Amino acid sequence: MDLMKELLKKAEQVEVVNLHNETTTVSFEANQLKSSSVAQTRGTAVRVVRDGRLGFAASSDEKAITKLAANALESAAYGDRLILKFPTAKPAQQVRTFDQKIVDLSISRLVEIGREILDLILPVEPDARVNLNLTRSVQSASLRNQTGLDIAFERSPLSFELEIDRIVGDDVLIIFDVVGTTQWNDEYLGFARRLVEKLKMARKLTRMRSGNMPVIFSPFGVLALALPLNQGLNGKSVYKGTSPMRGKIGEKLFDEKITLIDDGTLHGRPGSAPYDDEGVPHQRNVLVEKGVLKGFIYDLRTAAQFGVESTGNAERGLFNQPEPSSTNFMIQPGKTPLKDMIASISEGILVEGLLGLGQGNIISGAFSNPLALAFKIEKGEIVGRVKDMSIAGNVYDLLKNVEAVSQEAEWVYGSIHAPYVLLPQMNVVSKE
Amino acid sequence: MRDKIQAALKLSKADYTEIRIEEKESARISYQGRDLENANAVIDKGGVVRCLSRKHGWGVATFNNLDDLKNKVEQAYQCALVAQSEEPIELGPIEVIEEHIQAVMKHDFRDVSMAAKKALVENYNNILLGSSDKIIDTNSVYVDSFSHVYFANSEGTYIEEERPSVVVATTAIARDGDNVQQSHESCGGPFGFEFAQDKEEMARTAARRAVELLGAKSVVGGQYPVVADQMLAGVFIHEAFGHLSESDFVYENPKAKEMMVLGRRFGRDILNVYDDGTIPGQRGTHRFDDEGTPTRHNDLIKDGILVGRLHSRETAAKMDEKVTGNARAVSYRFPPIVRMTNTAIENGTTSFQDMIKDIKLGIYACDAYGGETMLENFSFSSGYAYMIRDGRIAEMVKDVILSGNLFTTLQNIDAIGNDFKWLAVGGGCGKGKQAPLPVGMGAPHIRIQNVVIGGQ
Prior knowledge:
The structure holds two protein chains of two kinds.
Chain A: H1 3-8, E1 13-29, E2 32-50, E3 53-59, H2 65-78, H3 100-103, H4 107-121, E4 128-145, E5 150-155, E6 158-168, E7 171-181, H5 190-201, E8 211-217, H6 223-232, H7 235-240, E9 260-263, E10 284-289, E11 292-293, H8 300-306, E12 314-315, E13 323-324, E14 329-331, H9 338-343, E15 347-354, E16 366-378, E17 381-386, E18 389-394, H10 395-398, E19 404-412, E20 416-430
Parallel strand pairs in A: 8-15, 14-20
Antiparallel strand pairs in A: 1-2, 1-4, 2-3, 4-5, 4-6, 6-7, 8-20, 9-10, 9-14, 10-11, 12-13, 15-16, 16-17, 16-18, 18-20, 19-20
Chain B: H1 2-10, E1 16-32, E2 35-53, E3 57-63, H2 69-82, E4 98-101, H3 114-130, E5 135-153, E6 158-176, E7 179-189, H4 200-214, E8 217-218, E9 222-228, H5 230-241, H6 247-250, H7 254-259, E10 273-276, E11 297-302, E12 305-306, H8 313-319, E13 327-328, E14 337-338, E15 342-345, H9 352-357, E16 361-374, E17 377-389, E18 392-398, E19 401-405, H10 406-411, E20 413-416, E21 421-423, E22 429-431, E23 434-437, E24 440-443, E25 446-454
Parallel strand pairs in B: 4-6, 8-18, 9-16, 15-24
Antiparallel strand pairs in B: 1-2, 1-5, 2-3, 5-6, 6-7, 9-25, 10-11, 10-15, 11-12, 13-14, 16-17, 17-18, 17-19, 19-25, 20-25, 21-24, 22-23
Helix pairs in contact in B: 1-2, 3-4
């Protein structure tokens, strides 16, 4: 049965999405390769507009097509009356998302890479226990709608997910890192080398008092600042009225050193693809420019709610309707070299990681987190790791006054690109 | 299906093989503010084969295409051969079982029309929206799912089980200028449609509290005696302690073994903690876990002393302890791992009034937004809280985040309430990539001395 044809008999608009994914995972657990797995998933998701109402259904059972069609039409009987138009085909940028070299990696080559990573870490930290997942997927997606739009693309994401814990006496240190790409890079061990440097730095413990002091957020630490902004810039939270940035386009909300960009067209990034998950071309969206709010990210639905164009930010899983989501979220690097940033501080702290990120009422911008990994800076130098510290503040207040943003920037968690950010004054609490 | 599964099992060259197939249909209706966001049904059908090669390790294949089970068994076996475990992997012994477990629902939700389900949620959503003009947004959700799970292993066990689940959740978001606050209430369980009905009071509570939070001041950070309500106490024991009881955390980690050594004192004599997958009607309840091991009552802390932990067959064999029935998988997309079922702090003897009457300045912290733990360190947000002043509940405060060290905090529990309850909440537990797994939590009120509260 041709789903498109069949559904068009009863619906004005129809969208059919087919997803197919094959994932190979090699898992090292406590330095040992204990399991490997192959996952094959496939499925079909359908949206229809019938009598002006939107309906949705999905199935991973390819034999249940008739029921899938019936479910979609029934769903439309209750769907909302939003005027949503599935897009016509528009030219998209060429975005490299597929690399045969990644597809060709054998499971034993993945095992070898895992060993190479462990061989970098374990000689330096014999007490470390490393959990490492190497994951390679081959994804294909196709999307058709009644306008004749018919697109298909393939992606080959490869990701390394690493958790190191080191327990010595009462001292517990846990470091987490994920790197991802869709283009093979011969420098695939770079992230592991950086981690080893962090581990070495973390050996020396020192103490610190509570107080107001300058704080440097590393690209990992910056997540505490980036997560609330990422949520606040999402068209859905703007529509819901929960975004503190609602209604403030054109206003200067942050220090002029802050520029935020969402860009789904970068070659090889995990968040990239020529089109979003509704068939709208990905683009580069400048959301905050020199501290001034320029815009939000939208999918078709939130764009229709505001009477604007989709920014190409729809994202969906098989069983969910699309929602706006950032692709590759970037805080633009600045002009200050990191070493100058550190040198400028007489007493302060470098935040490399926080515990409990993303919990609580984060959209308000407020956060309060224990520090998972942090270093004390004294007289312009990093002097050791500090434990049992926590920081609290509100992103919307803190980012009004930024002392410096570094030239150096890194990809963290695969799709967030961030520099080091120095805030001149922040409350740091020590439990000692 | 049984013949197909058993034919594929017979061909396996592995030391141990299991196959789990799941056929699931679920319906979801959700309102966001005034908009009906979802009213739809999805079909999810798939399976997982897990093979063990004792000398190598585990191989797993998951799939949607059930036509070629034999090939999937071979694929999983090949994956197992790639693994390089340092020691042979053994499995704790269990009895061979054959069972068909049928769901019991008073009112089977599969017989309820989408229109009736929609009307139910719409009513709760209207209660949220109509409670106050300060409520600017809502999220009202109804989800039901009915799974038919087939499990068989190469030892001869065969289990078919029907698993119904129904969840209702209401979130109210209130706003006053730049001040945005939210409150969430949910309930869920292995029941029929009847469970989702008559939850108007739940919606009213969520709405009332979101508006109240607008008037709350941020708590002043510092150390306080804290009285935690049943919900926060339940989430705390699950997150901060329960996960450390999962033996996959301990079994290959000498330091963690030291930390979690049986016989170590974890709290005062009044503290008793257990996990029990047999409690009727709770979200973590099943006759068997996803390895076919019968669930049971497992004491974890008895009179303040660590006495037990949770196992899969692999971790039980490795640590030379008995299986506990705690190997669970969130769906056919994953192999089972060690998980909690229903975890609880046992009832105590102190009344709520006695608990707060001697506190000059403290915090009554209720509900949990979520939390994170890193070994013995934890951080939790309470959903809402009140100051305790001179032995009485005083003004509401917000942004109450509790953090600390598990061991110190457990030792600092100096009173356990006499008002135990199970919390049939709608969410679920996450571990690795497996979420949300339905779990039960239970506790009475508890009092903890010297808790570090983050604040502005």
